[in-house]
């Protein structure tokens, strides 16, 4: 499990890697080495590593509050995001879609809100 974590972290951090596919299955089907769950579908140590990394690398819902100048700085992985910006006093909200692609350089998105 320790080596699996090291390999996955190294692969994930390499700029040329766009995704990771693992071919794994149950021990009773002849898979050896990297079995993620036992016969009762309980995580093995390798399964715990994969779950930990998915949670660590995932980008679940985030809430960010703007500073006094109305600026928020958020780092995102490649992917498509639905963003909702809400004015704190009026509760007026605006929804937009943001796509982060490979080679995407830091960008600024301006959202004009009516107070």
UniProtKB/TrEMBL annotation:
Coiled coil: none annotated. Keywords: Carbohydrate metabolism, Glycosidase, Hydrolase, Polysaccharide degradation, Xylan degradation. GO terms for molecular function: hydrolase activity, hydrolyzing O-glycosyl compounds. GO terms for biological process: xylan catabolic process. It comes from the Eukaryota. This is Endo-1,4-beta-xylanase A-like protein. It comes from Trifolium pratense. The lineage of its organism: Eukaryota, Viridiplantae, Streptophyta, Embryophyta, Tracheophyta.
